[in-house]
Amino acid sequence: MLALALGAAVVLVSVGLRDRTPLRSEHCVAEVGEVRAQIDPEQARWSSLMAALAQKRGLPPRATTIAIATAFQESKIHNIDYGDRDSVGLFQQRPSQGWGTVERIMRPRYSIGRFYDALVKVRGYEELEITDAAQRVQRSAHPGLYAQHEDYARALASALRGYSPHRFWCVVNPGDSGSASAAADEVTTSFGLEALPSGDDLTVPLDGTAADVDARGWAVAHYLVANASRLGLTTVDFDGRAWSAERSDEGWRADAGAPRSTVVATTN
Q1: CA quadruple 179, 262, 212, 250: dihedral positive or negative?
Q2: Phi and psi at residue 86, in whole multiples of 5°?
Q3: Is the pLDDT of residue 22 over 90?
């Protein structure tokens, strides 16, 4: 009898294990041309914010490339609270060098804004080599190291600014429920665009020329996917393409029902 009971327990445990959906390794990918830039969820969060804030300020994609390459070198695009001497944050900015207090620098929106404030003061930064532009902002002891991140940064900037449509996606594990209102507030704050929550849905209407709608729409769509796990998003649809958390390993799938001039997302 004991042997039979143990056997039944083993069967039940085995069945239970088979029924569980294995967790996927969460990551994000920008695949542009021959470059495949794979990053972790935190890197995706801050890279997408750099892209959104640059777009909100009317800065060219080159500014985003420079910011991402700089953060790759300085912190691996992680918001760290340590560094050389008093350096902290995404860009390892130093309070003693006038970048602000530690508390402020540790707020990514602030540190990204301060980086762009300094970058736009560099005359002709759009034409400079990335390592030169980054160095004029950072004044690093090792300026040549920024160049090694240029390919990744360029691919991420191109996708996250919307100029490489449906070339950025994330693989996630469907998780906690989200709030359409919270997601709408974040889009509005990051891009300066109107975002409309309604129940579990979020819509971001777009206007302008076809080119403007394409770039702006894909920038927003990629931003939402980059932050989908954190915001509790289940789907993002735009321009004949759909991304879903459940099938996130498939990237952007063709979907004739996805709207052309509105980005639509749903929450758990």
Answers
A1: positive
A2: -105, 20
A3: no
